[in-house]
Amino acid sequence: MVSFASANELKLIYEGKSDYVIVISTQSKSPKKLNEAATLLQSSLARATGVTLPIVEESEPDETRSAIYLGNTTAAMQAGLPVDEVKGWGFLNQVVGRNIYLVGEEAPSEELTPHKQAYSGFSGTYKAVTTFLENVVGVRFVLPGEWGIHVPLRKSVLVDETLHHRWSPSFVFGGRRVSPYSGKHEYDPYAIANNYLGRYSTDSKEFWSGGSHTWNHFVPREKYIKSHPEYFALFKGKRDPRRRNILCLSQPDVHDLLVEGVVKKFDEGYEMVMLGQADGYVECQCDKCQAIHPDIGEKLWITHRQIAGRIQKLRPGKKVVLLSYITTTKPPMSFDRFPDNVIIMNNRYTPEYFEAWKDFPTQRAIFIPDWLRNWPRIPPRYAVNLVRSWLENDVVIVYLGGGLDQLGSSWGLNGPSYYVFGKAMADPSLDADELEREYVEAAFGAAAEPMGRFFTAMHLRMEARQQLDRRETGNPDSRFRGFPFEMYPGDFHCHYFPPQILNKMVRELDLAFELAGSDEVRARLELTSAEFRYLRSVASVYHLFRAYQIAPTRPLLEALGDKVKQYHETYDWLYPDGKARTPGGDRKLRTPFNIGLTIGKKSLSKVPGPPFDWDFDELAKSGELPVPVIEPRLRGGMALKPYGRNQSGKGEVIPRPAGEEIRIDPETGAPFDQ
């Protein structure tokens, strides 16, 4: 194959040769990040063409050779580029003369562990490199890990002489705990290329989340429970007996400590700081807290609004992020605006929910806890529509809850959705179908056609799911706490993975394995296949269990027992010796459901409840046919005090039947703790 270059193209690499070098800035505040970006550029070009470009520092110039300049170089400034205007994760890729400038800045990280909320720094240069590789070389970062990078083979790499690409993120913060891969690198290229820019708590000093529930940071129970038990909520005569770091909102000293804690974070350099109640919040029973307001959520809104107002006077221009979560999901009713320094973090994001908040013209943060788990939940088209909706509703922070590094994240089955969602966060005008096709072609090569049909079958079924009642997508009741559609164990699998869908996916996956043309493609197929095999084993049990519930006969019970046995065998295959298998050996990819890496020693829990926990051998001996009446497994516990709005606009208590406010685990339909 002969390559031709036009007069308007630079011959970065041409017919296996190059006179270019990679030049790195000597002024970077984080040389480690800059060196990793240079190494990624060098290795990717070498994989594509077989040509390895030398990496040199700017202090070692070679005037006879053209260069790719990385970072805030003196050469970029001398070329007249606006280096000082490129900040954070933003970058500028531009050609001047025969030189290529990939301009960005770096910031060093603090110490990071999975249990420490810390500043992870940033690297606009790294982002500049991944974008250059995608747009110019055709590289695609489809999965985390070395074998998740698709690098097309080519004899030449030509660069348009008019290249001028300047970019900054759509969101101030977008990510959390996606990288590093296996703890070996400062960044995972997948995360940066696909705009999951956060690592652990923060990606820059723009936003300190503290894990969103920050009372324990500012008024830690272990520090004050003995010396100042009055700081903590009163329950049945005791102060915080459940040890949840729940505060007494009527204590002036508590207010002072919350103000002091937030201000301290601002003084560390953060622009936005989270102020969020303890997870599992229930109201303090002391008389003064009860007198704040009759509604449990309104007590929190009133208190946090007062604290934000005090902080605004102390640190004007900084932003306090208030948590709208469970008891504060509904907008405030006792006042009609927040101080100008407030951002609201919402954990609902439907059009109806944004409409409910329209009277409060604050910027928004979005908290996404649910759809990142192991079962496929959000199809690519819906993911893109979510991002578009967020930008239309002034969302500035996208906080991924536990992140994509959490236990149970599904990189095989959810790979296209993670990819499309990430790309949409950078450019929501992109077409979801084209992005999904791009993912499938890059990830599976010669097997792309059957894998396209594999994912299409699943995603079309998922799209119907969005019309139904789902907790994580909002569908609010009177307090905007939606019930999930799947109220019975197995509803998810039976509705969205019926036999015809499962069988089609099996056929397409088998054909894909026959067409796999490389070890990398086979490894990606093995990852997807491992997760699908497990999902299919669960769905098969539930389908047969439904048949048994309609016709409880001995033959059906025996067939059900066989399926349950196959499920346990599949589980043991997936987690030999309690640790997740690596598909196909050491493939340098995420393991199934992301178990066994930096945070993964614990395997995915087995499916609870009937029929998975029935003793079929004992049932066979006894001749018993179990009664197949399965109740919806709902969450009981404390119902919220109902609260509405009367014609005057003031709050009033409205009667409600006891037990109506019930939460359900959207994964299994089982109850879970407050």
Task: Briefly summarize what is shown.
With 674 residues, the protein is an alpha/beta fold. The strands form 7 sheets. A 7-stranded parallel sheet has the order 13-21-20-19-18-17-14.
Side-by-side strand order of the widest sheet: 13-21-20-19-18-17-14
The shape is: flat
Radius of gyration: 27 Å
Q: How many β-strand stretches? A: 23
Largest sheet: 7 strands, parallel
**Ends: how far apart?**
64 Å
Beta-strand content estimate: 5-15%
Mean pLDDT: 83
Helix/strand structural class: alpha/beta
Structure commentary:
The chain has a 7-stranded parallel β-sheet. Strands 3-2-4-6-5-12 form a 6-stranded mixed β-sheet, with helices on one face. Mean pLDDT is 83; it is low at 179-186, 469-483, 596-600 and 633-674. The chain is built from 19 helices and 23 strands. Helix 12 packs across helix 13 (432-444), helix 13 runs antiparallel to helix 14 and helix 17 (519-550) packs antiparallel against helix 18 (554-574). 35% of the residues lie in helices and 12% in strands.
